[in-house]
């Protein structure tokens, strides 16, 4: 079996302010002006256990964890381009949507939300994100 090494064009991102990866992956990878964040669960970064309080508490903690990873990657939540939300039950969409809207405020990234059969550690909520750190012209296509 050959050993694969990380290409120099990629930077692995890790922070102790978010839970450690629970498998053979990293919290995020930066390539160029993009940061690809792995899925964040509602884990307490210090205990490594899912927070109590149901889907609402897990969603809040997962978003907090994702924010810590984004900031460790040198970006900010206002530069999130796309998220994918994974729900154990689509019945939780409405309360999760309210928490998501509160977290992002006026910023509205593109998003997909799907119900899955099962999440790691039997979590109720998971979120992943793609974040931009582009520092060039910020005009939208409609403004040009």
TrEMBL record:
It comes from the Eukaryota. CDD domains: YjgF_YER057c_UK114_family (cd00448). Pfam families: Ribonuc_L-PSP. One of its GO terms (cellular component) is mitochondrion. SUPFAM superfamilies: YjgF-like. GO terms for molecular function: deaminase activity. Belongs to the RutC family. This is Translation initiation inhibitor.
């Amino acid at each position: 079996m050959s050993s694969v090494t990380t290409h120099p064009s990629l930077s692995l991102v890790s922070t102790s302010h978010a839970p450690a990866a629970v498998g053979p992956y990293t919290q995020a990878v930066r390539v160029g002006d993009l940061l690809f964040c792995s899925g964040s669960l509602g884990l307490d970064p210090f205990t490594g256990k899912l927070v109590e309080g149901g889907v609402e508490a897990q969603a809040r903690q997962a978003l907090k964890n994702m924010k810590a990873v984004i900031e460790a990657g040198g970006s900010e939540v206002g530069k999130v381009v796309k998220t994918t939300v994974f729900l154990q039950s689509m019945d939780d969409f409405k309360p999760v949507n309210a928490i998501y809207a509160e977290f992002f405020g006026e910023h509205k990234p593109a998003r997909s939300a799907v119900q899955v059969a099962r999440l790691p550690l039997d979590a109720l909520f998971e979120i992943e994100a793609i974040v931009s750190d582009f520092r060039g012209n910020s005009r939208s296509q409609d403004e040009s």
